[in-house]
Amino acid sequence: MTICDVGPRDGLQNEPETLVPSVRAELVDRLAAARLPRIEAASFVRADTVPQMAAAEEVVASIQRREGTEYSGLALNEKGYDRLAAAGLDRVNFTLAATDSFSRRNANQSVEEAVAAAASVIERAALPVTLTISVAFGCPFEGPVDPGVVADLAARFPSTEVVLADTIGVATPRQVRELVERTRAPGVHLHNTRNTGYANAVAALEAGAPLLDASCGGLGGCPYAPRATGNIATEELVYLLEGDGIETGVDLDALIETSVWLEGLLGRRLEGQVYRAGAWAGD
Questions:
Q1: Is 143 strand, coil or helix?
Q2: CB count in 10 Å sphere of residue 86
Q3: pLDDT of residue 283
Q4: Is 4 a catalytic residue?
Q5: For the stretch 196-205, what's the b/e string if a residue is b when 16 or more beta carbons lie within 10 angstroms of its beta carbon?
Q6: What does the alpha-carbon distance between residue 233 and residue 197 come to, in Å, rounded to a whole number?
Q7: Which H helix or E strand runs over 279?
Q8: Which of 150, 156, 65 is nearest to 102 (CA)?
Q9: Tell me, what CATH number does 134's domain have?
């Protein structure tokens, strides 16, 4: 299985503070040192819309690359992909929404326009591509999302790694299990807004999705999704999986140290709990 830490991107994009590129690169380096197999390092979006993600190229240039870690970035359109590819990352995460309302708020384009842009990027890309379908389980503007709509979107990209995103944290384990099985998507991106995120992660894994997004300390949210709180915490996910005998390869102690460092940097308690309680050494 693969855990992708999205903290440097999804985690920081909703913070009131804008961290300088060198500090954001240090976060990436700390996560790599904890042996995360994949890290979403930056977002190639307009600085005036998401100022927390400004200077993505500078962040990438400051990263100390570690062998065994794949560094990805997010793009919402072809211009974003061009910037990402030029920056020298290993993978592109292209995101499109399952509803028009969210797509227009998040990317200033309709779903069909986003699909066309995704298809163009996939055709052009020399990098491996992940396609994330946001608001796959519910939209803050349109309400519940028809699973058939999501399945149809996923089916249009049969050769691409698809991730189903519960952007506003409304999904339940049964819904996650059924949509993963229906789409055969290999990955999920989960928020813990209503405290169902970890149960949803287990359901996704049992349904056949070996790629799980998470964020150190449970940071996260979406500027265009009112009341959407943090992602599932990476250290919680690692603790859960390792405790159940599922090898992740991630250094939990180093991950906890990273979240403690982040807490001090941001000056507030983070959403995660394991970084405060510590890894349990008992049998």
A1: strand
A2: 11
A3: 46
A4: no
A5: bbbbbbbbbb
A6: 9
A7: none
A8: 150
A9: 3.20.20.70
Choice among 4, 139, 216, 222 that is catalytic: 222
For the chain of 283 residues, list the mean pLDDT of each consecutive stretch of 10. Answer: 96 91 98 98 93 96 97 94 97 97 91 96 96 97 97 97 96 98 98 96 98 96 71 97 96 97 95 92 55
* Amino acid residing at 41: A
Instruction: Answer whether residue 81 is part of any domain.
Output: yes
Q: Is 249 exposed, middle or buried (0-12, 13-18, 19+ CB in 10 A)?
A: middle
The answer to whether residue 281 is domain-embedded is no
| Nearest CA-CA partner of 250 in 281, 207, 202, 214 | 214
Give Cα 18 distance to the centre of its chain: 19
- Report the DSSP pairing between strands 161-166 and 143-144: unpaired
* Chain centroid to CA 249: 19
CB 89 within 8 A of CB 72: yes
Task: Count how many residues are written for the chain.
Answer: 283
How many domains, the chain?
A: 1
Give the residue carrying structure tokens 């983070």. Answer: 270
Nearest to 129 by CA among 179, 187, 180: 187
pLDDT in the model for residue 281: 60
CA angle 230, 210, 44 (to 5 degrees): 50
CB 254 within 8 A of CB 34: yes
Residue at 283 is within a domain: no
Instruction: Measure the CA angle with vertex 155, ends 151 and 159; round to 5°.
Output: 140
Q: What is the dihedral of CA 186, 188, 189, 190, to 10 degrees?
A: -160
What was the pLDDT predicted at 282? 60
Asked whether residue 279 is domain-assigned, the answer is: no
Domain interval for residue 245? 2-272
